[in-house]
Each structure stands twice: as C-alpha cells, then as structure tokens.
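Weekly structure sync, notes
Attendees: PL (lead), two postdocs, one rotation student
Agenda item 3: pending single-chain targets
PL asked that the sequence for the first pending target be pasted directly into the notes so everyone works from the same version. It is reproduced below exactly as submitted, 409 residues in total.
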Amino acid sequence: MRSAPKGLRLHIGLFGRRNVGKSSLLNALTRQTVSIVSDIAGTTTDPVEKPMEMLPIGPVLLIDTAGIDDVGALGEMRVQKTRQVFDRTDVGIIVSVAGDWGEFEEAILAELREREIPVIAVFNKTDVAGVDAVQESRLKDMRIPCIETSAARGEGILDLREALITSAPEEFINAPAIIGDLVPAGEMAVLVIPIDLEAPKGRLILPQVQSIRDILDNDAYCMVVKERELRDALDRLKRPPALVVTDSQAFLKVAGDTPDDVPLTSFSILFARFKGDLVAFVKGALAIESLVPGDRVLICESCSHHPIGEDIGRVKIPRWLRQYVGGKLEFTHVQGHDFPDDLGSYKLAIHCGACMWNRREVLSRIIRCQQAGVPITNYGLAIAYSLGIFERALKPFPSALEIYRAHAS
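Predicted structure, written out during the meeting:
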C-alpha cells in the first residue's frame, strides 16, 4: 500500500452555491485539473474527491461538492449528495463570490457550526468583485478565518493553505492509537487472522495492516497466526503476550484457546475506539438484551462489496442475533454513505469497523442515532455480546468495561 488510506486523511469539504468557483479553487489547491471548470452553473454533479499530501498536515482528501442552491428533481438529488459530505467533513470551506455572501452561505455556516466543524470562509473572484468589509468583519468576530482569492489567477491560495493548517482539528494532528497504547514497548501482541473465502487474495485487510503498523510505531512487536494455529503458537512463547487480537468471526474459538489471564479483543472493537466512540458503542450493544422477535435492526456497511458465503454482516451477525433473541428479526442493510433519514423504526443499528472512513463520519452517525433515540454499536461488540464473551472482550478497555459492569449489576 503506497498511499495513505482515505480514512486516515483530513477530509476538507468545499461548499457553496453553483458557479462560485469551488472547482477552480480545488484545481488551484491541488495544482491539477481535478474538477471540470465551466461558466455553466451546476457543472459539478456528484462530489469530486482528490487525495493529496499537504505539508505539514500530511494526507488530506479534498471534496468538491455540487452547488447547494441547485433546483429541480435532479438538483435535489445533487444537493442530497452534498449534504452527505457534511457527515465526513473535518474542515469546511464555504466559497462565495466576493461581495455576495447571503442566505445559502449562512445555512451552510449554521450546519457546520452545529456539527462543531472548523470553518474557513473564502471570498473568491476578487479580480471581478470587491469584498463586503462588514460581512468579513462579522465573520472574523465569530473567529472564522476569511480568505480572499482569485482561483482563476492563483491568488490567495497560499493564504488558504495556511488557514487549513491552523484549522485542522487537534484530534487529527494527534490521532488516537489503534493498539499501540495497549501493547507496551518491547512486548508482543498476537494477531489472529483467519484466511477464508472473504479474505482478499494475496493481502490483508486494512485494520490488520494498520494494527501491525501501529504496533511497530510503538516499538512493540507482533506474531500473526491463523485461528487454527493459535494454541500451538501461544505454547511456543516463553512469556504470555500483552494482548491477543482476533477477527471477530473467530471470537469463540480464539477465546477458547487463549488463557484467561491474557487480554483478548478483536480488530473491530479496536476500530470502535479508533474510528468512533467505544463507550457509546458499548452502551448501544447493551440494547441487544432488550431485542424481541420482530424488531427491526439496521446493519451499516461503510464499503461496498459483493457478499459471498458466510458474509459477516448479512449472514453471521443476523444468525447470532436471532439465536440470542430466540426468534426472527427484521434486518435492513445500507452500504457506503447511504443512511436512512428516518431511524425511528429501528431498535438497534450495528456498524462495521469503518476502516475506510474518517472518524468524523462515524461520529456523525452516532450523533444521528442518539438524536433519534436509536442505540448504535459495531460488529465486534455485537458479536461479542451475542456470543456471551462481552466482558472478556472489553477487559483491555477499563472505562468501557466499567460501563458494562454497572449495567450488568
């Protein structure tokens, strides 16, 4: 893997009305022709993504969106795609023509501020119009950086890059560890990686690769085995590992082969913390106890794939939950950035590890579920709970374990 995964990049969304120069701004920032530029309003239809390195921030993903003021049935579809980008935006750039900041820009600003997303205001096309000094002063009083640009001439682009650097959220600059804080320097983690029909040919999946890298970054080391070889591998070690991490699908077998005094969890649970909010997901998993036959469960897959065989989200989790509940449940599956507007009919939402996404989008979904009063958890936690090994899977995470024990008592 030669480039940083999309989920580890700072997501920068460009928002504004049609024909304000968002695409020209994207091209100027990247110094490439990424988006088609035209004087015809509405040239950009679906969001256009461009990954790049922006020093000293590092890897970023720039997202050019369709105009938020588009009209008609097709226009509404474009606007809906743009609204989805809010969910994964770490820094929002509102682009307006200089001197023409109005209700659309205010609506975008309100949406971004409500989500506590850092905002940069860009007054573009300063070569043909002057900036409204009163409006600019008002935004600066709100601590919103204001940048004057002429994207067509490449003017103001360095100022915009500087504003992006200073606006990057602290949690992006100092990202949480995946596993490194759980395995002290000089200690070992054993990673259990089944190789089955759904394992990608010739490579490991992203959570496994990223976990290995995080272990190495923290001066620890790891052993990688399949579930059938775990017991023999542990017997060969001179001292117990600091942690065993398994694919959630092999939880039961790995739990049976791992001594009780060795901490155990899954890649999915690691990513519940890394990509989302582990405590919120633990609280969501507790709702499994209240499920009854006939309840509706939403299963969310962040990436699109062709399910085969014993698919984890479409076959195994539904089967384990039905067995736990003792009856049929109604499952709805969504993929990618699609997410229901009306969540009220669901008793539980279960999310995948979201290894391809940034943390902002997962947190946005958690908030939307909380607003609708719908518990949300993730694959690994749902599997551990339904298989009766929830407490053991949480032992490496004291604060999350305390939440569960308080509920159990």
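Discussion points:
- The chain has three domains: 6-173, 180-269, 277-408.
- The first strand starts at residue 10 and ends at 16.
Action: rotation student to compare against the earlier draft before next sync.
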